[in-house]
Design brief:
By secondary structure, the protein is mostly helical. It has helices at about 10-15, 30-40, 50-55, 65-95, 105-120; strands at about 20-25, 45-50. The protein is elongated and about 55 Å long. The chain starts with 7 loop residues before the first helix and ends in an 8-residue tail after the last helix.
């Protein structure tokens, strides 16, 4: 997580110089516009509704604490998504090993596993 205060005009230019990374923002009209621009630059921009960010807020409200709460909320939801995918993969693996999957699904699973092996090195930057 970057701990720098930027002006609105600097955000796009500075993030354009960074390698693609995960960027979490609290959802608002301006955030939707900015997330589209960041996605065009290759970043993974995630928007979080305020009601999901609020439980992670700590103490007095300021920009840095808001940023920490947003980062924590995005992180928690990413892990929840990963857990759902892992559970689905476990079910498919069990069915595959029992030979109960149709041939088309077996081929699709092999393609998915191959893609996962190629993308194993991706680590999001906060």
């Amino acid at each position: 997580m970057l701990r720098q205060k930027w002006l609105r005009g600097q955000v796009e230019a500075r993030l354009g110089n960074l390698p693609p990374c995960l960027i979490g923002m609290e959802a608002s009209v301006g955030a939707h516009h900015l997330s589209r621009k960041l996605q065009m630059l290759g970043h993974d921009a995630r928007l979080m509704p305020a009601k999901y960010v609020r439980p992670y807020s700590k103490g007095q409200k300021n920009d840095f604490r808001d940023a920490e709460a947003i980062a924590e909320a995005v992180n928690v939801f990413l892990y929840a998504e990963d857990a759902k995918v892992d559970a689905a993969i476990a079910v498919v693996t069990r069915l595959f090993e029992q030979g109960k999957l149709p041939r088309e699904m077996r081929i699709g699973r092999a393609i998915y596993e191959d893609e996962q092996r190629r993308n194993w090195h991706f680590q999001p930057v906060y």
